[in-house]
């Protein structure tokens, strides 16, 4: 099981401490927050995989936390905890996008079981995303923007892609910086060499140098073997340094020397290794402002910013909104192996066009993925959208009567994906899903 980064949100310190201790004993990394506001701050600074959140807290509730996190484009599995169980609370939690719902006091074995199921789902999702990306590359299926704002970006990309110039891609979170960097790599002479993305904010400061430049055996406690760094692993290709504004000042100085000298020195080694790597950096931070505050090196900024590409937010390319939504729906349809394309209700189009999408393209893609899971009869209806969208648009829906059917549909899809991932081996699938083999057979009979 991979090590997960898990956020525990509860206003009671004793619960935070007990749950954090239980999770650490399972080998996972834990962050804690006393309320939703602090939780959102932690999500912005960390790539959280799972969030255990109380429902009733000062300020925002746990359900409001889910909705706000989704609005900001944070992707993680939410498990809602409460001592006040009710059917309506469970329904609200699931409607808002919670993965699961647990009653307090929590039992350690239940927490362990939930985490294992989520870890397996994350592995399966990553595998599906990799397969989808591979399929997209094979079919050369890309989205062609109709906006003038993106046309300007495309013109710059066409001019610089086949050079070795260092690039800085700027734009709001979720605006497509990673996709743009990959497109530049694919259009360059380095396309058949590695493209390695690095989230500078996700690597602990004490590990950054080793991750980027590698280390020799015995360089520090725990360095039992030689490690190849990401610069060397990307040799001949492209290293994409995302969230470059989060790089500590000490590491900025070392990165500057590498860019100037085109060689690295692994931690614990006295030898320099030449590297042939193209650097593409990206940020959503105001780097000139950080330079004025002595938070970012000016010399490194100019070294990285040979060419600058400013990506527009989704609100600046509104003509792409509905075509992008259809594009993502089609991607999800192919990923799930569905034969029939999806239609979009006119009211859905109106709601989407009336929403400002603070999470940009990433938020739109998440909405499309959710809609495909919930849709019935291959029609995307307004109730298949997150509540904050249609509520903001003033759309009121009748009380949901078929939530159980929708959850069953989602469960059916998870089972199908899991079976596909193990080539139809039902015993292996049951183990991954945390089900008994007889329970899996019973569910398959229900869906047949």
Automatic annotation (TrEMBL):
Q: Which residues form a coiled coil?
A: none
Which key words are in the record?
ATP-binding, DNA-binding, Nucleotide-binding, Phosphoprotein, Transcription, Transcription regulation
Q: Name one GO molecular function term.
A: sequence-specific DNA binding
What Pfam families has UniProt attached to this entry? AAA_lid_14, HTH_8, Response_reg, Sigma54_activat
Q: Which Gene3D superfamilies match?
A: 1.10.8.60, 3.40.50.2300, Homeodomain-like (1.10.10.60), P-loop containing nucleotide triphosphate hydrolases (3.40.50.300)
Q: Which InterPro entries match?
A: AAA+_ATPase (IPR003593), AAA_lid_NorR (IPR058031), CheY-like_superfamily (IPR011006), Homeodomain-like_sf (IPR009057), HTH_Fis (IPR002197), P-loop_NTPase (IPR027417), Sig_transdc_resp-reg_receiver (IPR001789), Sigma_54_int (IPR002078)
Q: Which residues form the Response regulatory domain?
A: 5-119
Q: Name one GO biological process term.
A: regulation of DNA-templated transcription
> What protein does this entry describe?
Sigma-54-dependent Fis family transcriptional regulator
């Amino acid at each position: 099981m991979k090590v997960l980064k898990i956020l525990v949100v509860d206003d009671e310190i004793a619960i935070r401490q007990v749950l954090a201790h239980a999770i650490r004993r399972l080998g996972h990394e834990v962050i804690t927050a006393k309320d939703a506001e602090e939780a959102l701050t932690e999500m912005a600074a960390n790539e959280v995989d799972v969030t255990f959140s109380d429902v009733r807290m000062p300020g925002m509730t746990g359900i409001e936390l889910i909705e706000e996190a989704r609005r900001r484009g944070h992707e993680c599995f939410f498990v809602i905890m409460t001592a006040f169980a009710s059917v309506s609370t469970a329904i609200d939690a699931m409607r808002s996008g919670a993965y699961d719902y647990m009653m307090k006091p929590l039992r350690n074995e239940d927490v362990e079981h939930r985490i294992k199921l989520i870890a397996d789902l994350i592995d399966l999702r990553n595998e599906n995303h990799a397969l989808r990306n591979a399929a997209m590359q094979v079919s050369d299926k890309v989205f062609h923007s109709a906006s003038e704002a993106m046309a300007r970006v495309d013109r710059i990309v066409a001019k610089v892609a086949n050079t070795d110039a260092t690039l800085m891609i700027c734009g709001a979170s979720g605006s497509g910086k990673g996709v743009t960097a990959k497109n530049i790599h694919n259009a360059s002479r380095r396309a058949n060499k590695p493209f390695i993305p690095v989230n500078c904010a996700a690597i602990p400061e004490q590990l950054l140098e080793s991750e980027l430049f590698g280390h020799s055996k015995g360089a520090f406690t725990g360095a039992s073997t030689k490690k190849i760094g990401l610069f060397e692993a990307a040799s001949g290709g492209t290293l994409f340094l995302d969230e470059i504004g989060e790089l500590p000042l000490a590491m900025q100085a070392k990165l500057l020397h590498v860019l100037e000298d085109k060689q690295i020195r692994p931690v614990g080694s006295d030898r320099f290794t030449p590297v042939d790597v193209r650097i593409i950096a990206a940020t959503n931070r105001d780097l000139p402002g950080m330079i004025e505050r002595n938070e970012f090196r000016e010399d490194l900024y100019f070294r990285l910013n040979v060419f600058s590409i400013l990506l527009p937010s989704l609100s600046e390319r509104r003509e792409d909104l509905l075509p992008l939504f259809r594009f993502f729906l089609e991607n999800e349809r192919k990923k799930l192996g569905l034969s029939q394309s999806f239609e979009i209700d006119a009211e859905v189009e109106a709601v989407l066009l009336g929403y400002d999408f603070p999470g940009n393209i990433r938020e739109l893609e998440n909405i499309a993925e959710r809609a495909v899971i919930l849709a019935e009869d291959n029609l995307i209806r307004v109730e298949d959208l997150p509540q904050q969208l249609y509520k903001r648009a003033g759309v009121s829906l009748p009380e949901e009567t078929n939530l159980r059917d929708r959850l069953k549909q989602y469960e059916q899809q998870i089972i199908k994906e899991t079976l596909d991932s193990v080539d139809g081996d039902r015993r292996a699938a049951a183990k991954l899903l945390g089900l008994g083999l007889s329970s899996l057979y019973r569910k398959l009979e229900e869906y047949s």
